[in-house]
């Protein structure tokens, strides 16, 4: 048989039927749901008198609209003060109840951002197809699962048929070889990739991230990278299975039972690209050359090294790009040529499906330990990705490190990544954020977002402006007070 | 789904690359549990001078006179002309719902983001990718001639300009078929229910751990 990429294998294993015109029906193993993109799908199902094809393939949790403050959260759904938000969460609860779908509700400890919850529960497994009405479903590709975001019509389609109508994507390999510098993280790798290929560079492709620097990453780091494949235009990001993948999954609630485990592991070991598999496009990066990254504009591709200056639109490759840069500088309140490390911040957000897992919180805590946030920082918040991440972080004493430094320690949810709940930026406010999108208004009307890693966000909180975390004297991993 | 066969529509130019779905419909409007009513909030942050929130009376809000869709000559536009990577970012189907509710049936741009592309066709909106130079030419023509309209013939896969020039375009055959016939694709898929069930039982036998019900 011809050599196959990991994506080719996953595609072939899920192909139900294919048509001569190139469209195919692929089977979906796991469907994750949240409150924002599902209500119209359930309504469609109800209007057509249809039922979910396979109830147990679905797993739901509310995440976008949930409050992250303790007082509101302790009141459950009643603590969602915005009526429209509350109705949306209540609608998810009612739909899951009436269609008998498993849901981790607002104050279930297993609740959290859907892309943190799936892997944490072992509900995302290698060899699965995983979809969700959310573009950051790419996250789950870190487990060699074919995973991507879908729209609400497709949510309804998956509920009703357990399948999706799809076209096969092209294969891209992004190979990152070598060793990352101290203080340089998975977030910096993926921002550097987006800076290289652009926000449309991966359109039409499934990107497999490979190379020694990727193999060295923890599962959390790989999830961060796959999560932002969509910011490079690719719906799918993938990493091949290795020991890290398998060890991460052992013992998780939805993982294979003890009897099934050996056969599952045997099957998972096959989920790697064949040595001579052809890729339509290959992009190579040297890990040692990657610096901590900071976005300066209103698209994730508008990103530079922390040691750089804000770029000049006059040097843009073409007129459309130049106009976009000028508009971005205007929106962001920045001048071309300004040093990145001179940019002063108002708020700090550590969280989101990109960077709210335990490793992210540990990285940020290393920087925050024994320090205080700067006087000009009005709010620095840490929002764990799930109730279970929160509990683990508290067991390690990370919450105390953050609160003693002046950070707020919040309840799990999407929070200020997209500001659908009460956590948002005011007009003109500038935020160092560990999230994934710096679009205009994303974190609040008129808000200004700079995307960075958790360590860079924490260091910016302490200094009040961006600093190169590599020059920063902070605790090594094993020196946390916990 | 709404059928799309042929349309002669007024063209509005949105001269901006990488238009993301947050810009098409900001997040506060995603709290709705309905599929309709998003039109007044299409491009909300560009269209109005104030901050929008759900349930507002849009007719009382201050319009941004600079924004292209607010200009009198583009009222009633059904064809949106845009720059590369239109519809990037979030998977929210509220973006095509808002375009549709506003009255757009066609978007022409050099390229589209993948998820937005799927979502639009599911809602009877035709997306036409065209070479950057052709799009540039259409921008110039639209801006130069008030009331500039394009004739879009899906069956023949042609965009016909007022001067009679025919510009061919590509469209995926299955999507074209669904659009021309206005087909409900869930119904179509369920016609293959037997094949799905058969696949499922093979899949379950091969990898039973994928079917674990906790």
Question: How would you characterize the overall build of this protein?
Answer:
- The complex is a heterodimer of chains A (482) and B (214).
- Chain A has 482 residues and is of the alpha/beta class.
- Chain A has helices at residues 6-13, 39-47, 70-74, 83-98, 114-121, 152-161, 186-197, 212-215, 219-227, 243-249, 261-269, 319-332, 358-368, 387-395, 398-405, 454-463, and strands spanning 15-18, 23-27, 30-33, 58-60, 102-103, 129-132, 146-149, 163-167, 170-177, 205-210, 236-238, 281-286, 293-295, 303-305, 347-350, 379-382, 408-409, 430-433, 448-451.
- Chain A has a five-stranded parallel sheet with strand order 5-4-3-6-7. In chain A, strands 17-16-15-18-19 form a five-stranded parallel sheet. Chain A has a four-stranded parallel sheet with strand order 11-10-9-12.
- In chain A, helix 2 (39-47) crosses helix 6 (152-161) and helix 13 runs parallel beside helix 16.
- Chain A is globular, with a radius of gyration of 21 Å.
- Chain B is of the alpha/beta class.
- The longest helix of chain B is centred in the last third of the chain and has 14 residues, at 193-206.
- Chain B is globular, with a radius of gyration of 20 Å.
- The relative contact order of chain B is 0.17.
- The mean pLDDT of chain B is 96.
**What is the CA–CA distance across the termini of chain B?**
37 Å
Please state the oligomeric state of the protein chains shown.
Answer: heterodimer
Mean pLDDT of chain B: 96
Indicate the structural class of chain A: alpha/beta
Strand and helix order of chain B: EHHEHEHEHEEEHHH
Helix content of chain B: 25-40%
Sheet-strand content of chain B, in percent, reads 5-15%
Q: Characterize the biggest β-sheet of chain B.
A: 7 strands, mixed
Any low-confidence stretches of chain B, pLDDT <50, length ≥5? none
Count of distinct strands of chain A:
19
């Amino acid at each position: 048989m011809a050599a196959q990429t990991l994506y080719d294998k996953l595609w072939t294993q899920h192909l139900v039927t294919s048509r001569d015109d190139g469209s195919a029906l692929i089977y979906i193993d796991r469907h994750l749901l949240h409150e924002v993109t599902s209500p119209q799908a359930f309504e469609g199902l109800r209007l057509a008198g249809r039922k979910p094809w396979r109830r147990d393939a679905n797993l739901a949790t509310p995440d976008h609209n949930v409050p992250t403050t303790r007082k509101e959260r302790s009141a459950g759904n009643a603590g969602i003060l915005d009526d429209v938000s509350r109705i949306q969460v209540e609608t998810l609860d009612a739909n899951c109840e009436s269609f008998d779908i498993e849901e981790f509700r607002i104050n279930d400890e297993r609740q959290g951002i859907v892309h943190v919850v799936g892997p944490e529960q072992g509900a995302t497994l290698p060899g699965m197809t995983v979809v969700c009405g959310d573009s950051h479903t790419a996250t789950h590709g870190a487990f060699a699962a074919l995973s991507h975001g879908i729209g609400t019509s497709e949510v309804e389609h998956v509920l009703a048929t357990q399948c999706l109508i799809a076209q096969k994507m092209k294969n891209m390999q992004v190979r990152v070889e070598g060793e990352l510098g101290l203080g340089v993280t998975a977030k910096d790798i993926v921002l550097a990739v987006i800076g290289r290929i652009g926000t449309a560079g991966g359109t039409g492709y499934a990107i497999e991230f490979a190379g020694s620097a990727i193999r060295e990453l923890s599962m959390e780091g790989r999830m961060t990278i796959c999560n932002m494949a969509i910011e490079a235009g690719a719906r799918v990001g993938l990493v091949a299975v290795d020991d890290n993948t398998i060890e991460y999954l052992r013992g998780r609630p939805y993982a294979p039972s003890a009897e099934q485990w050996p056969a599952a592991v045997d099957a998972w070991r096959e989920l790697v690209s064949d040595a001579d598999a052809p890729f339509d496009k290959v992009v190579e990066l040297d890990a040692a050359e990657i610096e901590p990254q900071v976005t300066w504009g209103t698209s994730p591709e508008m990103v530079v090294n922390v040691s750089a200056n804000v770029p000049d639109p006059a040097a843009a490759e073409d007129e459309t790009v130049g106009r976009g840069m000028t508009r971005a500088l205007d929106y962001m309140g920045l001048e071309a040529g300004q040093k990145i490390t001179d940019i002063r911040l108002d708020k700090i957000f550590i969280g989101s499906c990109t960077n709210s897992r335990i490793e992210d919180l540990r990285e940020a805590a290393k920087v925050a330990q024994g320090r205080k946030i700067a006087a000009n920082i009005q709010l620095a918040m840490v929002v764990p990705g799930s109730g279970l991440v929160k509990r683990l972080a508290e067991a390690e004493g990370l919450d105390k490190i953050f609160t003693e430094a002046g950070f707020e320690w919040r309840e799990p949810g999407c929070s200020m990544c997209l500001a659908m709940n009460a956590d948002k930026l005011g007009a003109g406010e500038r935020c160092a954020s560990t999230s994934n999108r710096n679009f205009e208004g994303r974190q609040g009307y008129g808000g200004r977002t700079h995307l960075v890693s958790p360590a860079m966000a924490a260091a910016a909180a302490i200094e009040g402006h961006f600093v190169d975390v590599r020059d920063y004297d902070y605790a090594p991993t094993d020196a946390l007070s916990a | 789904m709404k059928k799309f066969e042929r349309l002669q529509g007024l063209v509005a130019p949105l001269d901006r690359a990488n238009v993301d779905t947050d810009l098409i419909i900001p997040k506060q409007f995603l709290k709705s549990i309905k599929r309709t009513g998003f039109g007044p909030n299409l491009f909300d942050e560009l269209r109005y001078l104030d901050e929008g929130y759900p349930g507002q009376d849009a007719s009382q809000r201050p319009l941004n006179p600079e924004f292209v869709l607010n200009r009198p000559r583009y009222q009633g536009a059904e064809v949106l002309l845009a720059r590369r990577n239109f519809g990037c970012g979030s998977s929210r189907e509220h973006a095509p719902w808002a375009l549709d509710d506003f009255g757009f049936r066609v978007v022409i741009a050099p390229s589209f983001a993948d998820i937005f592309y799927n979502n639009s066709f599911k809602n009877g909106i035709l997306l036409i990718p065209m070479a950057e130079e052709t799009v540039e030419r259409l921008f110039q023509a639209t801006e130069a001639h008030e009331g500039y309209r394009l004739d879009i013939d899906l069956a023949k896969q042609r965009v016909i300009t007022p001067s009679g020039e025919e510009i061919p375009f590509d469209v995926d055959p299955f999507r074209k078929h669904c659009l021309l016939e206005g087909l409900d694709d869930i119904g179509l898929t369920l016609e293959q229910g037997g094949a799905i069930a058969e696949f499922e039982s093979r899949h379950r036998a091969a990898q039973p751990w994928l079917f674990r019900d906790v």
